[in-house]
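Section handout 9: paired folding examples.
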Amino acid sequence: MVIILINNSYKVINVQISALQFFIISILFVVGDAILYVPSLIVQGASHTIWIAGIIGIAEAVLLSLLYALVSQQFDNKGFFPYLELTYGRWLGRVLFLLFLLYVMVDVILMIFEMGSFMVTVIMPETPLEAIIMVFLLVVIIGARLGLETLSRAAEILFPWFCVFFFLLVCLNLPNAKFENMQPFFEGGIHTIFKGNVSLASYIFESIILIVIFPHIREKDQATKAYIKGITIGVTLLVIISLLSLLVFGLSTLKMEFYPSYLLGQTLEFNFFSHVEVIMAVIWFISLFFKVAICFFVSAQGISQLIKVQDYRIVTFPIGIFLFALSFICIPSSMYLIHFINSTWLSYSVTYGLFFPLFLLAVELIRKSRKSNSVNGS
């Protein structure tokens, strides 16, 4: 369902997706842009202990998705924004929701610039960065305007292709894997493992954005399981591709490459088939599109509720123009993007991905405790 404001009261419009579709969206959302960058980011901190950092990351994915699911269960089909307004009051609820939307839009800005930077650097060096971002944003806007149901059905159709290409990429690179590249196993101790793990955790925190989708799920009893399984499988895929990159290239090469997962496709050579790296590009484009489209949909729907616009589609093009301009104002270069991700994005993500849901859950528990005490007292 979608909840919109009509004459100062919230009205419900049936827009629902299945638990299976939510499961697929959760996987694609976690993989998103991370599949291209995570191997390089983890190895900068974890070195040869990348596999340990990955196992810890999978455990974190289970715990965090459970936390987010607990928060979403408090909505009671009201929707995220109405819940904040009813729980924290009109002004504080709006401030909290606006801060959350700011986080979502910053994430969109980072992803569209990442996509443009990758295309200009690796695939289409003679094409202007502005043109690539503009075309990609236009496709995202069209997808968001078609609605959540259409995006979910498209994800359901493309997900098998995503799985096939991922399976091919992994299997075709296995003969090149050298297990001695994992040695020494515990190099650097706990400190190194922690440094590598936080890079992966910063991407897991982004999955809190999906709590906005929970009220739209048809099978309420299966939503939490679908969410936890989807997030966990998505993180597992990131760990697999990171570990494979280490096994194939070794630590020294991996530290020098910013797109090691894309390089996995470039190393494959067949007499009858060239440009195998396109397999990696297809995997990334599929997951990235759905992650950006879902974030854009959440932003458009949230802003329309804040400014009391009945149809969120009205604000999609203004938001697109705004984000297009901000992507160049906030991120002047690819080097600045790398510096921002390494130095700032973790603290920004942990604020919304850990402290924010813990705050919401703590307040809800206090409210319920006071209610039960007042009932018992009367």
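Moving on to protein 2 of 2.
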Amino acid sequence: MFTASTTIALTALLSGLTSLVAQAHEQSEAIVTPANLPSQLNIEKYCPIGPYPKKAREAGMSGSATLKLAIGASGKVETYELARSSGWKLLDTIAMQAVDGCQAYPQGNYTPASKTINYNWKFSGSREVQLKANTCPESDLVRLAQENEQGVGIVVGTYVNPQGVPSQQPLLQWGVGDVSAEDEALRIAKNCQFDPAVSQGRTVGSGVSLRFFRK
């Protein structure tokens, strides 16, 4: 038989249990609160690109590929886009394959965020092919991109011999779906003038790429 004192005791017990459950719930929520992604991303450690591709090295392909990554709550790359080409589709493709589904941060519970990263391919101890200023033909369709201008645009690659002359037909690396503009970019690249690459004190043949935007 329940008495008034028994009822009071049960009420106090239930109240205490409710309070403990509420505290445990609050603590549980505090533990799973997502953390901000660390500011530093060691992309070469977690999403490595491997050694310099032999084909690219032999052709003198170099550059820096810039990619924008969408990092999910687990620290994994969910989506990516090429923000700026290295100048060579081969190198860009290697970079995109490296980040595709990559666990960019240690497994955790993060606030999803975007990160911009670069993969660099450079030849040590050498000077790359240099475009001579104001030597490319004018065009009503396209223009050369500025050095710090963002975007992929139309990218054309060619090979410049030790005399600074394009010795191969320029090849389209990335286009914009406009055949007229792409053909015009190829024509211009073929007729620009260059200072050749230099390695160990002598001029050498090497690849060079040019980036264009439609006017």
